UniProtKB/TrEMBL annotation:
Enzyme's top EC category: transferase
Subcellular location per the Swiss-Prot or TrEMBL entry: Cytoplasm
GO CC terms: cytoplasm
Transmembrane portions of the chain: none
Keyword Repeat: no
GO terms (BP aspect): citrulline biosynthetic process; L-arginine biosynthetic process via ornithine
Catalytic activities: carbamoyl phosphate + L-ornithine = L-citrulline + phosphate + H(+)
Main location: cytoplasm
UniProt cross-references to InterPro entries, sorted A to Z: Asp/Orn_carbamoyltranf_P-bd, Asp/Orn_carbamoylTrfase, Asp/Orn_carbamoylTrfase_sf, Asp_carbamoyltransf_Asp/Orn-bd, Orn/put_carbamltrans, OTCase_ArgI
Summary of the function given for this chain in its UniProt record: Reversibly catalyzes the transfer of the carbamoyl group from carbamoyl phosphate (CP) to the N(epsilon) atom of ornithine (ORN) to produce L-citrulline.
Organism encoding this protein: Paenibacillus sp. SYP-B3998
Protein name, per record: Ornithine carbamoyltransferase
Gene label: argF
Domain Aspartate/ornithine carbamoyltransferase Asp/Orn-binding as annotated: residue spans: 163-317
């Protein structure tokens, strides 16, 4: 099968498909979406029309607030020729007891796609089961796949390849870790995380990622030692110590993570040309020093920009 035929087959597979977590996507589908994001970015920068979703409408359900998610999806739909409709938790009958199934069925009669940013991953799964249009996970406590698509698009643009690169994550084993680890394992990358006891990633995600890595030539390392995890890393990644919904644990987490700050001393163990990444918002002086996040190796705003382009690829591929 030649390359163009494979790309056409993948395009057909993705049409109408939900985007809930990277575990649901093959390595080929992930790579396709990354390259599609790069192509849509090129067109946008060149001023080339790409209104592939003309006449389409995306419903954006927000139970968690966001800067990057709302703006990037809304602008992305506009650039693709469609429109986006913002729906806060106060705008929907979900907040008054209507079932997720009934909401999904109803919204599917009006919309061509649904993006939801919420807490429980179960709600996204139930929404997708009830909907007859594609559902996109804008973030849950379990996974953040849209961010990771933007992240690996950014790495590919900067490094020229993904397979064989090492990603080191220092901090909480949260939704970002789940998606980063799963994506890395499917792309043949090496992934290492250092987190304190009690803050490990989900055990099932770790095992699935190890199984994927065995097939793609990557590797997974779970450690308590930030130096071990970051050694010879191409990418150094961190996130806030207390994610949204865990604010009441802030003081407790500050104590647990006090030795897990990404700073100038720690990044000396990474490769000299390492890239620093953070999904934002960041707490400078907490999980990362100002010298690192604002330094020459930081690509945090390239990541933020690519949320727009990566999500356009997801929407265009699934909703077209």
């Amino acid at each position: 099968m030649n390359s163009s035929t494979l790309q056409e087959e993948i395009a057909v597979q993705l049409k109408g498909k939900d985007f809930l977590a990277l575990v649901d996507y093959t390595s080929e589908e992930i790579e396709y979406l990354i390259h599609y994001g790069i192509e849509l970015k090129r067109k946008q920068k060149a001023g080339e029309p790409h209104a592939v979703l003309a006449g389409k409408t995306l419903g954006m359900v927000f139970e968690k607030s966001s800067t990057r998610t709302r703006v990037s999806f809304e602008v992305g739909m506009y650039q693709l020729g469609g429109q986006a409709l913002f729906l806060s938790k106060n705008d929907l009958q979900l907040g008054r007891g209507e079932t997720v199934w009934d909401t999904a069925q109803t919204l599917s009669r009006y919309l061509d796609g649904i993006m939801i940013r919420t807490y429980e991953h179960r709600k996204v799964i139930d929404l997708a089961r009830g909907a007859t249009v594609p559902v996109i996970n804008g973030l849950t406590d379990y996974a953040h796949p849209c961010q990771v698509m933007a992240d690996y698009q950014t790495v590919l643009e900067k490094k020229g390849h993904l397979k064989g690169l090492k990603v080191a994550y220092i901090g909480d084993g949260n939704n970002m870790v789940h998606s980063l680890m799963m994506g890395a394992s499917k792309l043949g990358m090496d992934f290492a995380i250092a987190s304190p006891e009690g803050y490990d990633p989900d055990a099932e995600v770790i095992q699935m990622s190890k199984d994927n890595a065995a097939q793609t030539g990557g590797s997974i390392l779970i450690s308590r030692d930030p130096r071990e995890a970051i050694e010879n890393a191409d990418i150094v990644y961190t996130d806030v110590w207390a994610s949204m919904g865990f604010e009441d644990e802030q003081k407790e987490r500050e104590i647990a993570f006090k030795n897990y700050q990404v700073n100038e001393a720690l990044v000396k163990y990474a490769k000299q040309d390492y890239l620093f990444m953070h999904c934002l918002p960041a707490h400078r002086g907490e999980e990362v020093s100002e010298g690192v996040i604002d330094g020459a190796h930081s690509i945090i705003f390239d990541q933020a920009e690519n949320r727009l382009h990566a999500q356009k690829a997801i929407m265009a591929a699934t909703m077209r």
